[in-house]
Amino acid sequence: MDYAIVRIGNKQHRVRDGETLVVDRVRADEGKTFEPDVLLGDDGVKVVATVVAHERGPKIRIGKYRRRTGYKRHTGFRAATSRIEISLGGKRAAAKPKAAPKAEAAPKAEPAAPEGLPDGYADMTVADISRQAKTWERPALEAALAYERENASRKGALSALESALAAIEDEGEEA
After folding, report:
1. 117 with 144: CB under 8 angstroms?
2. What's the pLDDT score for residue 96?
3. pTM across the whole model
4. Spatial contact of 137 and 164, defined as CB atoms under 8 Å apart
5. Which residues contact 82 (CB under 8 A, 6 or more apart)?
6. Which strands, in side-by-side order, build the sheet including 11-16?
7. What is the model's pLDDT at position 141?
8. Residues of the chain predicted below pLDDT 50
9. How far apart are CA 19 and CA 154, in angstroms?
10. CA–CA dist 155, 148 (Å, integer)
11. What backbone phi and psi angles, to 5 degrees, belong to 172?
12. Contact at 8 Å (CB) between 23 and 8?
């Protein structure tokens, strides 16, 4: 795990090695280090925080107003903050040994295309199939449907081919 979750100033922070945070003011002086509580991390990981600087946050303007009386009051507030730098030290998990490279798998042979399959059918998208299936003849539709059921099983293509076959059958019944 390359991060840890620590509690600083009763707030939780997700920290990484070398990260700089601005948190509520801590009691340590500038340049000093302290160890915050580690809530989540590798077993035995040691998190050390170094106080880089004590700062004040941006000014927040607070206004009070009561209508029709002329009463207006303004105050400001600047939070006391500390800028800290995190270092994840301590026990590190041992690097996992790299697995032996797999032998290259033989390239999969293209499935045999049934007779009468439209040209370039295997490379068509579902949208192309649904658009072009309306113009194909019955043998081409049946071949494409057989190919789809054996190999790809794409729902959209199956439904487009079945609806095109149904449309051809409906035309045959009407004639």
Report:
1. yes
2. 46
3. 0.47
4. no
5. 22, 23, 24, 25, 26, 28, 51, 53, 54, 55
6. 11-16, 3-8, 37-40
7. 81
8. 92-96
9. 47
10. 9
11. -65, -35
12. yes
